[in-house]
Design a protein that fits this description.
By secondary structure, the protein is α+β, with helices and mostly antiparallel strands. It has a single domain (about 5-110), classed as YgaC/TfoX-N like chaperone (Yope Regulator, Chain: A). Helices cover about 35% and strands about 25% of the residues. It is built from 4 helices and 5 strands, in the order H-E-E-E-E-H-E-H-H. It has a 5-stranded antiparallel beta sheet with strand order 1-2-3-4-5. A hairpin with a 2-residue loop joins strand 1 (about 20-25) and strand 2. The radius of gyration is 13 Å and the shape is globular. The protein starts with a helix and ends with a helix.
Length: about 110
């Protein structure tokens, strides 16, 4: 589940349109945070964004797969792979990041109840 320094820098740079993003390495990968809220993760040099019922369909329409933290297991997390053509387009990536950040905030609020 490693992430290369070059890919991590690339993604953070691509997200500059979205706003300041703070990467934090964890478990061989990295979490991406905005204002202290994790909205994305990178594992094996693949970017995943947080999803909920409001944005999951966008990813499924693009045939994106959910993040599976354990090889060979069916366990999935509420993060989906961001399609490569989206990652390469800063404006599109920023739009998807806004949705992921909003999903992360909703999830956070739900856990505080």
């Amino acid at each position: 589940m490693a992430v290369s320094e070059a890919y991590l820098r690339y993604v953070v740079d691509q997200l500059a349109v979205f706003g300041p993003v703070a990467p934090r390495r964890m478990f061989g990968g990295a979490g991406l945070y905005r204002n202290g809220t994790m909205f994305a993760l990178i594992a094996d040099d693949v970017l995943y964004f947080k999803v909920d019922d409001s944005n999951r369909q966008d990813y499924e329409t693009m045939d994106s797969e959910p993040f599976r933290p354990y090889a060979g297991k069916t366990t999935v997390m509420s993060y989906y792979e961001v399609p490569a053509d989206i990652v390469e387009n800063r404006d599109e990536l920023a739009a998807w990041a806004i949705g992921a950040y909003a999903a992360a905030l909703r999830t956070r609020r739900g856990k505080k109840r």
